[in-house]
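thoughts on both lines:
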Amino acid sequence: MNILFFKYAIEIERTRSITKAAENLYMAQPNLSKIVKEIEDSVGFSIFERNSRGVIPTQKGLRFLDYAQKILEQFEQINKLTDSETIDRQDFSISIPRGSYIARGFTKFAMELDTEKEININIQETNSISTVENVISHKFNLGIIRYQTMYENYYFDYLADKHLGHDLIWEFEYLALMSKNHPLAMDDEVKFSKLKSYIEIVHGDTVVPYLNTAELQYPLSEAVPQKRIYLYERFNQFELLTSLSTTYMWVSPIPGRLLKRYGLVQRKCAFLNNRYKDVLVYRKDYTFTMLDKKFIDKLFESRNEVSLKQYN
């Protein structure tokens, strides 16, 4: 049996949909359905069944998928016998939130790569749920998730359910980021009531494990602003903040060099539940490489450079 078949089956279990799994695997849905039939014919029992919740594993299917996951994990360990620490190739992959100090840490890491060796680096900015999915599906080795601390138990349960390990990187308060020409830029600490008059730029990452949209509280525990622009690319956000001085957005503390480059300032703003965490996530069986450890060192170095006293 082709080892890729195990990966296909695990993706179906994760998405609870053959159609969605096929999309994620960049293949046609009929082809994936055919492969599932071939696998089931080969093992002699049904792995999946359809019900109101979608495509779910049968009892024997659960055992099959457990063995398949272990086989993939062992295969990954075999691949590591010829990984970047034994050949002249530098492999590194991570899925991250849109955080400037994290991007700065990655830049510092990339600047120290050996340009005489082969480089294979994969980094993606996305939301926390997608990051978890990226890690458990082996698309990325590491991930960083960001969440509001009031939802921490939901995230910890979710990570435990996905058999992921986690380490705290930073706990911080969001700051209001705006142009130095913003009407509130001269305030040492802005009041949220004043921000309601201006346009908020939003990342749009509002998903929390096990909660639907109706159960989520607006992060600022205030009425939702009526003036909002959803924009997912970090540097496009900076350009808009610079060009449209009536906009602002909520961010983790940003390195001073970026503030100067884009003519921005960050200001404290007191409001309820303004506590967030960035957490490193990884598969529990994963062995950190030397490059992984170097990135983490640079990440913490970047975090330490960002002082909450440096608002201007």
User: Anything to note?
Assistant: The domain at 3-81 is CATH 1.10.10.10 (Arc Repressor Mutant, subunit A). The mean pLDDT is 85. The two ends are 60 Å apart (CA to CA). The chain has three domains: 3-81, 89-172+277-305, 175-273.
